[in-house]
Amino acid sequence: MLNRRRFAVTTAAAMGALTLPTGHAQTTNYGRVISGFPPGSSGDSVARLAANQLTQSTLNYVVENRTGAGGRLAAEYVKRATADGHTLLATPDAIMVMYPHVFRNLPYAPLTDFRPITTLCTVPIALAVGPAVPADVRNMSDFARWCKANPAQAAFGTSGAGSTLHFTGVMFARVTKIELTHVPYRGANLAAQDTAGGQIAACVGVLTDLLPLASGGKLRILGTSEGKRSRFTPAVASFREQGLQEIESSTWFGLFAPAATPDDVSQALHARVVAALAQPAAVENLAVIGMEPKSMPMAAFAALLRTDTERWGAVVKQVGYSATD
To answer: Which domains occur in the chain, in start order?
Structure first.
């Protein structure tokens, strides 16, 4: 079973000291990595990883949870923060690449209000069922057939409307030509718990949030979204293996600074995190919660941000989703 407490063990021993370039005003003697999600969530865990990677002898980074509005409040806060490298945002991709298409009045512009530092890690999306679905439903095709035979019960929960998880479920329903009702929850853990308790048939979530209940036998994971099987669930076929390559994807988490952050500060932050992600301690800590480390050059991350924004925009348009306030 995954152990988030073990994950919180610092990776400081694996990291050298980071000295941010001099000549820039430093407003505090500590830095903050802002998370838009509550303690214990996958988003919070990744923020703690980033804080551990950045902490050094003269500047400690701490995690500050600014929850609400599905992560939008945290992003807006960092957008307005002093651009000195002391206030950073660790966030899943949806807040940056999906929200521009599903919220009309988004209080930030992802492509212009932030300086992308690097991706931190990736994690597959997965679909899981609980006791409301018969035990002989073992894969995605089985589940599609069950949904067709039981339309009144065919529903899936996610951490909220307008997320990549939501649209993964919608695309699955479209590809398999089934009716599948979406039930938004206030958090991924709540959706998973209701699925495990039989209150709802299924849930779509990042693998990290589903593994604890799956390892305890309370959820059955029917498929994972990347092109190959996850090493954390080797017995579970990927969507591609099951003929569902149209909905193949994964979730990344990234580190962002305010847009006006100077080049030398941004590059120092980037170098620090990339070096730390290559260390065995970081790899092990991510593995504990079912994630894979992934870093990239700053220019490549900026390009990924644009590409994913366009890709998910096309998906939102295809399914006919109406933006909300």
So the answer is: 4-122+252-319 (3.40.190.150), 124-247 (3.40.190.10)
Reduced to 3 states (helix: H, G, I; strand: E, B; else coil), residue 122 is strand
CB 241 within 8 A of CB 229: yes
Task: Please give the average per-residue pLDDT across 247-254, as a whole number.
Answer: 90
Residue with tokens 């006919």: 320
Alpha helical stretches, state H, the chain: 4-7, 42-54, 72-79, 94-97, 99-102, 140-149, 164-176, 188-196, 207-215, 263-277, 280-288, 298-319
3-state SS class at 230: coil
For residue 317, give Cα distances in angstroms to 109, 171, 174, 250, 310. 19, 12, 13, 20, 11
d(CA 224, CA 202): 14
pLDDT interval class at 13 (50, 70, 90):
very low
Does the pLDDT of residue 15 top 80, yes or no?
no
Reduced to 3 states (helix: H, G, I; strand: E, B; else coil), residue 193 is helix
pTM: 0.83
C-beta separation of 293 from 277 below 8 A: yes
Angle at CA 33, nearest 5°, toward 191 and 78? Answer: 90
The set of residues, in sequence order, having a beta carbon less than 8 Å from that of 252 and lying 6+ positions away, is 92, 93, 119, 120, 121, 122, 294, 304
Output helix, strand, coil percentages for the chain, rounded to the nearest 5.
Answer: 40, 20, 40
Q: Which residues contact 149 (CB under 8 A, 6 or more apart)?
A: none
